[in-house]
Specification:
four-stranded antiparallel β-sheet, 2 helices
Length: 157
């Protein structure tokens, strides 16, 4: 399990660094400058939530920084069985890679239940492993299953 996560993580980090290198060089990979190719980076709107709600600050027991620079932050996210994260945010869009997941609940900032997953524990080919995630307003996740939820979250600053 650790080896598959590490090999995936290595591939993602390599891909992120290639993307950052292309971006830093100002080229789209087609020989055209990023701006001419329509790939210029858009300025993000101001983030309305305090830094104290950042996932690493507000929920450090559940979010561990594996890598960070001025363009990307890679988090290891683990929610043990029958635990609920404190309310927190994710300021940047990200790619989430699921190592394993099961039943859980997603709450908004006020503690109202927004979504409940009743799908039992999944790992391997039955699990949709990677997905895009927009920035997230204050929320909390509760693991209601018997196994830990495990994710790698690559946040693009």
């Amino acid at each position: 399990m650790k080896n598959s996560l590490l090999s995936w993580f290595g591939a993602v980090v390599f891909g992120v660094f290639v993307g950052v290198a292309l971006g830093a060089a100002g080229h789209s990979g087609t020989g055209q400058p990023l701006k001419a190719a329509g790939w210029e980076r858009q300025a993000a709107p101001p983030w309305p939530y305090p830094d104290s709600l950042d996932a690493v600050v507000a929920a450090p027991k559940f979010h561990r920084v594996l890598f960070e620079n001025d363009r990307v932050r890679v988090l290891e996210v683990t929610v043990p069985p029958h635990q609920r994260e404190p309310v927190h945010t994710h300021r940047w869009p990200s790619v989430i890679y699921k190592e394993q997941t099961g039943r859980g609940r997603y709450y908004d900032a006020t503690g109202q239940l927004v979504h409940e997953s009743t799908t039992p524990y999944r790992k391997g080919p039955d699990l949709v492993r990677a997905r895009w995630q927009a920035p997230e307003a204050p929320h909390a996740v509760e693991n209601t299953d018997e196994v830990a939820d495990r994710f790698i979250r690559v946040e693009l600053k």
